[in-house]
Amino acid sequence: MHDAHELARLVGKLDLNAKVRLLAGGSVWRSHAEPAVGLRALTFSDGPAGVRGPGWDERRTSLALPSPSALGATWDEDLVGRLGGLLAAESRRKGVDVLLAPVLNLHRTPYGGRHFECFSEDPLLTARLGVAYVRGVQAGGVAATPKHFVANETETDRLTHDVRVDERTLRELYLAPFEAAVEAGAWAVMSAYNGVNGHPMSENPLLTTPLKDEWGFDGLVVSDWGAVRTTAESALSGQDLAMPGPWGPWGERLVAAVEAGEVPESLVDDKVLRLLRLAARVGALEGTGSESAPTAAGAEEPVAAGASAVASAGEASAADLALLREAVAASTVLLRNNGVLPLPSTTRIALIGPGAIAPRVQGGGSSGLYPAAENSLHDVLSVRAEVVTEPGPVIDERPTPVAAPVLVRVLGADDAVLFREHRLTGRILETAEVPGAATLEISAALSVTETGRWRFAVAGYGRLTLDVGGERVLDVVQPVDTDDPAVKHLRPPHHEVEVALTEGDEVELVARRELAEDSGMASMLAADPPRRPAGEAFAAAVAAAERSDVAIVVVSTTDAIESEGRDRFTLALPGKQDALVGAVCAANPNTVVVVNSGGPVLMPWREEAAAVLLTWFPGQEGGTGLADVLFGDREPGGRLPTTWPREETDVPVPDFLPVHRELPYREGLDIGYRAWAVNDAAPAYWFGHGLGYTTWDYEEARVERDVVRVRVRNTGRRPGREVVQVYLSRPDSAVTRPARWLAGFAAVTAGPGEAVEALVRVPQRAIGHWDGGWAVEPGAFTVLVGPHAGHTPLTLTAALRPW
Question: What Gene3D superfamilies does the record tag this protein with (predicted)?
């Protein structure tokens, strides 16, 4: 490993142009190499629920982990650390040096559309799990990148909105998880798109104070993709690397700014030194380990025509799959159970809902990947029980991309074929970029399986055309209407048309879109058969429930609702899912409802269901992991990482939309359960809530300096795990405080009738407050102990001394 003196010597070998060149991306997913100092390019990849590798190609598959909300629900640092190790191994197999994860933003309100990428609503829980994630990844020699620094809790106007937040709230809530990750040794941090208190984060003073000087962060600050928009202002801040590249506002303009005296060259030197330090840590600098170029799995170049496939992550080991399966059960939250769970092996099951057949395993947006495999609940339950499956009414009206074989061609202005390849899907996000490209063409042969009006769609920017069976049925122009890269490069608008077709016909589909500057490559050809009438599908589902011992209804959001680049405007489930659940519950008293979402949804039927489970976009082993829980092979181990409301009118922090691009955090310290604690209405389910297959009594608690010792007893018939939670309160405080706040937690396991002691350490920060610096108010705190934020049966008063 190079020491600071050696790194400084290497910086000194480079002239200004060479140094500035290193501070912008060499391409979309790689930094520049510099042979003069033995530096190879660093390869970056999106996280956090898997390692996609550079770019989007469905032929490069990845292990799909449960979402970060699911990891938040585990309340299990050891498990999160082991999953971090799995991510590091995946990164190495794909030639990835820097994983752009974990996300340490908070669930400020239930409406955040990207909250499935975040752990929880609480800074302490987020910090502890974030630290475990960072350490797990970096132990494998891959850089973790806590993001999005900071106060990035809203997706609406996400490129431009400015958060207005007081310093105490910023320090105690939103900066706290990042501070913990830096103390744990994070090698990189990503700056956010949004602004805070008048400055975009890519040029915000917070990148220097507290990040670099106060916290001692010696790693690299990389921008979110396209977030650096100025030259001198951002270069004068703590921003170190502007991604992607090689375009952008640095480059020649930054060289000119340095030469004009607007930016000291010493700042450029510090940025380059940090880049070299990161390279040394991941083995990308000569003399620091593996300096080979990224493997084929991480290559950005498209597959040549005739190639069979792009290298993927390789076959997952049995241990990898077992870990993913364990994580599903550990994150599944049992909200309610009248005794119907676990199921007996002889149960006749009616399995209802589209998510039971085609599971949603991940959220939408740039973190999306192509799972190495997926198992649905239908596939798994069908080999364990007698199952009748009914999908029920459609909940997602968006078109379905055509499946393989798909031919993609890049054409010149004269329709000359410049490039061609076969793909596995009609949703094409990237393909070859070749000189003279004018048109992207996607074609496929459709075997008509049903007579009726088929629905076709084409997506992209520019002129879009569609020919069905040689007839032009669509010809429209879609102008570029956004600067948001998640929209432009992942989900451009689509246009639909219906065509009457006859069963048994073979029809050629040809979609074209023009390729214009700054319009992205993302395109889609989609086809959907005539749909079953919604009423008929609804009735068939209810009838199946009536004929079965148990009904399992899988309900979910869609990635049109929970996705990067958008927020939610209602917490209600889409489509007729609430009505379907109500009807199935009425038809079968043994109805188990499985809710698959990244954040809270309303559940007006929750008291009618025999059991309610939450699965949080569970990744590729979602079917097997959930089946383990349903049949009692594993206990549902999850606890809520965020509070679930009864009604939307009860949500205590409803302000999530910027007004004139400003978003004030008026609620201060009171988000999540803290706000509910002073609210007149109780939530449906409190932060920390979760049932297992046994019961617990909280018998005694006592405080010894900085440790709360809690004796709990398993009063049920099965062994189990309990997450003992300690909250603090200070009603007589001279300092304005939340009504209660999480101060620590510890998990214990015990057999039937067994008593065990949980040791919950309370860190000094939990009793401190920000007052221009960290301070501790003398005197005693009220210590509240229990299974969740709304139920703390043990209370004592003590002067905690965590030093």
Answer: Galactose-binding domain-like, Glycoside hydrolase family 3 C-terminal domain, Glycoside hydrolase, family 3, N-terminal domain, Immunoglobulins
